[in-house]
Every structure is written in structure tokens, then in C-alpha cells.
Amino acid sequence: MGLLTNLKDSISRAAASLFSEEDPKRIGIYGPPNAGKTTLANRIARDWTGDAVGPESHVPHETRRARRKENVEIERDGKKVTIDIVDTPGVTTKVDYTEFLEHDMEKDDAVRRSREATEGVAEAMHWLREDVDGVIYVLDSATDPFTQVNTMLIGIIESQDLPVLILANKIDLEDSSVQRIRNAYPQHETIPLSALEGDNMDEVYDKIAEYFG
């Protein structure tokens, strides 16, 4: 009888341990086009899994569909946090096909790309309202952060009561100003980094573990 009771207890403990494990949190990487979202997603994925999320490009709207890298396990100070990275298309109010003509594309390709980018923006907004547990908001620190789109998106994130970490990217550029982003959105902590060069990624990972762990 004692053996049977011990066996039942062992099974109960194993089951409790199994079902107490939380699913990975879906963390959406958001921001305007060309802020460095995919560069950041690739940096995180390569550092912790060895794989990339998607191609990087200086051409706007290279990411036109959300891409997901699952089960990225980040360990900081003995604590592990497992997240699914969702690299989303850059959100803007309008995608003009003439943007792509400036990058030596044929008109048909430019029109197709602009249509796909517009659909991608709608998909990103759906993810934000329905399918993410937290947000990493990436801004180009060399440009003005106080735009209608950024204000709208951060407002939606706040209304959804999602944890949000603002990253001031591209601090390697001469015109970078992290303080400009802090002044624009003082209600949120802003972390400087260069996703391209890998500068300050240790603090980024510390904050990811703190915000989403």
C-alpha cells in the first residue's frame, strides 16, 4: 500500500511540474520601418539559438510578413526566460510604391511590394491586439521618434496593458540621440543599443529577462 501511495505521489508531483511550466511568452518586435527590428531579432536569435530570423536590408519594408522564432531561451544571472520572438513588419500610415522605385525596382515589383507591405502592417496590428504577451519597441535614435505612428502604437500597447521595453537603436550613428527618445516617451524606460554592432546587448538581455520573465 505504501509503495502504491508513493508511486501516486511521484506521478502527481511529476504532473504538477509538467503542467506548471508556462508556455513561452510571445514577444513582438515593433517599430517604424528601417528602425532595425530584424537586425535586433537576428542578433537575439543568433546569440541564443545560433539561427537567424530573416533577411536584413536597407530597403524599407523588407519584412512584409511577421516571422517567428520559437523557444529562444535567455539566461541572465541564473534565471532563464523562454520567449518566442515575433519580428513584425514596420508600421506606417501609408506604403507608397514610389519608395521602392528609389531602390532600382521595376514598377510592377514596387507595386507588389507595397501591397504586401500594406497587408503586413494589418497583420502586425492583429498580432498586437490579439497574439503577443509583451512588446520590444525599436526606434532609430538618429531620427525624430515623436511621430503620429509611434504615439499611436505605444498608446495601443499601453491600452492593452502589455509590458513594453523601448530600445533606442543605432547608437553607432553620428546623429544618434537617446535622450530625444527618452524625452518623447518618458513614461517608459529606454535602453540604448546598436543591434548591428552588438553594443549594449548585455543590458538589453537583462531587461528582457526583467520585463518578460
UniProtKB/TrEMBL annotation:
Classification via InterPro entries: AAA+_ATPase, GTP-bd, P-loop_NTPase, Small_GTP-bd
Positions of the AAA+ ATPase domain: 23-177
Pfam hit, one: MMR_HSR1
Gene3D superfamilies named among the record's database cross-references: P-loop containing nucleotide triphosphate hydrolases
Domain of life: Archaea
The protein's name in its UniProt record: GTP-binding protein
Organism this protein belongs to: Haloarcula onubensis
Classification of source organism: Archaea, Methanobacteriati, Methanobacteriota, Stenosarchaea group, Halobacteria
